[in-house]
Design a protein that fits this description.
heterodimer, A: about 290 residues, mainly alpha, ABC transporter involved in vitamin B12 uptake, BtuC, two-stranded antiparallel sheet, 2 strands, B: about 375 residues, alpha/beta, Rossmann fold, nine-stranded mixed β-sheet, seven-stranded mixed β-sheet, 12 helices, 16 strands, about 40% helix, about 25% strand
């Protein structure tokens, strides 16, 4: 029984890490720009396709992972320059535009990639035995990569000058500008970094699950739940919420019902918000990155 | 319009041009509603191509002769986009055209149910393929509706004994999405499995859009199962097969209700067996000349290569010819009740061999795909 619980917990942490990677991008953009970017899920999907084509054309998974992050960073930068920069003062317009982008990207992806599902061979196959548990080798690799990615990003935010500029903007945009932070550059960089995280999450997602043009809805919905659950704009909150959601889904599906899988996240969010109205790591009236 | 949608429109235009060649012939307008885009397009798009192809072939031969008059067919296609509300609006568009009395399309129950209900209320001769259409057939108002794929109650009678024999399973778990369809699958397959001496100690349902099956698969671990009956589409089943091999202590023999052999073939080295249903014809390993010829005609018509989903193109193909033949037999293109009755009394040897029962349910022979010891084969399961 204990072994079963441990296995279920590790399963939850492994998938929760993926959720956290998506949520970090969403919460980062929200923290800086005040936009809940619904098109973030599309970047996860496109990142997965970049990885798929990288692997199937012989380039390999690791270059595919890097390419997915880089190409989505570029795509995010283009979106910020062409569209979101012009909606900064009108959050409703930004939200509406991001919904429009979902439709455009999804239909284009369906036309180009076809609706058929795709999978690619992950770098690690099969399972590993660890402390009596049988765990998927690729899932363990994904968990390690996610921890590395999120950890590195957190250090970047905390230790680097640019990271401090991002945090300053998250706390007070005008104040940050007054002390010399180049608002436009930081905004563009945040969008690019958030999109790169989505691209990387997509590549990792694709190494475990099927890729389709319509796959974006689930990661996006979970990313949004986590953004609220963790506290709008809080990166540590999004990460913690991601792992919590993974655990809730894993234990709920294993010991209650797998038919209600996505419902567990919403129950968690409702209960958490009753006790923490601004989210697990949120602070009323301010955004924290 | 998507590329797929554009291609279908061009095919429809080509079919119409062929039809116009017979300048003196009168035309019968046929409606089509299918999910040409969206996640269900992988089923509906080839099915729609099959309808286009069949009518194109009829038109190219000069159409049908009804009481000495020549009739050809023209097609009007609507895209349901895999969404129930758009299936309804597509159906409504077709119904606004008084000349459309016959409609083909939809293989998935979500968009299919509301559209079929609308057609039932509007006295349309409707040919669908989705599973839940079985629940409407035989009820008042659906006398003109047909389901062109075998019901689970028919398929299971050949699929279960073949699977048990080929895979040699003794203890099987059932894992299906939480949908109405799955309940009917369990109702049909579980008693047959038990009747064949197979124990079924666990039946689990999962959220239909699940991609991470690890938690629910853990429930099947350590139960000494040697088989898993699962479905209902390639994406789900591939994920289940793959994740089963990764988690360990899970069955390595799979009985796949529906789809293609692709999910099992991809992991043929990691699993011990995989049996799947080919509700029309095995196109990948076709040995019959008529199937081989159909494949060549399909490639020429659609300018596409075969894919694991191409066999859905045969969903309505033969039924189109049955309907055309029925129109000739009853001497009318508008007497829908007579046409429906004629179809129900007909046995048709086309690419598939099929007939319909009194309620409009197809009874056709199917192929069953088998992957065993790394080798792929298929057997024909007759319906009678």
């Amino acid at each position: 029984m204990l072994l079963d619980i441990a296995q279920t917990a590790v399963d939850g942490l492994m998938v929760g890490g993926l959720y956290a990677t998506v949520a970090v991008g969403v919460t980062l953009v929200f923290g800086i720009m005040g936009i809940l970017n619904f098109a973030h899920g599309q970047m996860v999907m496109l990142g997965a396709y970049v990885a798929f084509y990288s692997v199937t054309t012989g380039l390999g998974f690791w270059p595919g992972l890097a390419l997915a992050a880089l190409s989505m960073a570029l795509f995010g930068l283009i979106l910020e320059r062409l569209i979101f920069r012009h909606t900064l003062t009108d959050h409703m317009a930004g939200l509406t535009v991001s919904l429009g982008i979902i439709m455009v990207v999804e239909h284009l992806a369906s036309a180009v990639f076809t609706p058929d599902h795709r999978t690619f061979d992950p770098p690690l196959a099969g399972s590993v035995r660890f402390a009596g548990m049988t765990l998927s080798a690729q899932r363990l690799l994904v968990l390690a990569l996610v921890l590395l990615l999120v950890g590195a990003f957190y250090l970047f935010l905390q230790r680097t000058r640019f990271g401090k500029a991002i945090r300053a903007m998250g706390q007070n945009r005008t104040g940050a500008a007054l002390v010399g932070v180049q608002i436009t550059h930081v905004t563009a960089a945040v969008f690019a970094i958030g999109s790169a995280m989505a691209g990387a999450a997509g590549a990792l997602y694709g190494s475990l699950f099927a890729i389709t043009p319509y796959m974006a809805a689930a990661p996006l919905m979970k990313g949004l739940i986590l953004t609220v659950l963790g506290g709008l704009g809080s990166v540590p909150g999004a990460v913690a919420a991601g792992f919590l959601l993974g655990l809730a889904e894993s234990f709920g599906s294993r010991y209650l019902s797998a038919s209600f899988r996505d419902g567990y996240g919403f129950v968690l969010m409702i209960v958490a918000l009753l006790y923490f109205p601004t989210g697990l790591f949120g602070v009323r009236g301010t955004a924290r990155v | 319009m998507t590329v797929s949608g554009l291609k279908l429109w061009l095919l429809a235009a080509a079919a119409s041009v062929a039809l116009n060649a017979a300048a003196s012939a009168q035309t019968v307008k046929i409606g089509m509603v299918n999910s040409l885009t969206g996640p269900h397009a992988s089923f509906d798009l080839p099915a729609a191509e099959g309808v286009q192809m069949a009518f194109d072939e009829i038109n190219k031969k000069g159409g049908i002769t009804v009481k000495g008059k020549k009739y050809t067919f023209t097609l009007v296609s609507e895209d349901a986009q895999s969404k129930p509300e758009l299936a309804v609006s597509g159906a409504q568009k077709l119904l606004r055209d008084d000349d459309i009395k016959v409609v083909f399309g939809i293989l998935t129950s979500g968009p299919g149910m509301p559209a079929a209900t609308l057609f039932g209320k509007s006295d349309i001769l409707y040919f669908g393929g989705f599973t839940l259409l079985d629940t409407l057939l035989g009820k008042p108002g659906f006398e003109l509706a047909f389901r062109t794929l075998d019901a689970d109650s028919v398929v299971s009678k050949s699929f279960v004994p073949t699977s048990v024999k080929e895979l040699g399973v003794k203890k099987v778990g059932i894992l299906l999405p939480n949908e109405d369809v799955s309940r009917s699958i369990v109702a049909a397959y579980k008693p047959l499995l038990e009747g064949a001496g197979v124990t079924v100690p666990i039946v689990e349902y999962f959220q239909p859009d699940t991609s991470d099956f690890a938690p629910v698969l853990r429930k099947f671990q350590n139960m000494e199962l040697d088989g898993l009956l699962t479905g209902t589409n390639d994406a789900m089943v591939e994920a289940i097969v793959r994740q089963s091999t990764e988690l360990g202590n899970l069955p390595k023999k799979f009985l796949y209700r529906g789809g293609s052999g692709a999910p099992g073939i991809k992991y043929s080295k990691q699993i011990d067996g995989f049996v799947w249903q080919i509700l029309t014809r095995d196109l990948d390993y076709a040995s019959e000349n008529k199937v081989k010829e159909w494949i060549e005609r399909y490639k020429a018509f659609t300018k596409k290569d075969m894919s694991p989903n191409t066999y859905w193109a045969l969903t309505f193909y033969d039924t189109v010819f049955m309907m055309a033949k029925a129109m000739e037999q009853v001497g009318s293109v508008t007497d829908l009740k007579a046409i429906a009755a004629s179809i129900k009394g007909m046995r048709y040897d086309g690419v598939r061999t099929m007939r319909f029962d009194k309620d409009g349910r197809a009874q056709a022979d199917i192929d069953i795909g088998i992957l065993k010891d790394g080798k792929i084969s298929s057997v024909r399961a007759p319906f009678e």
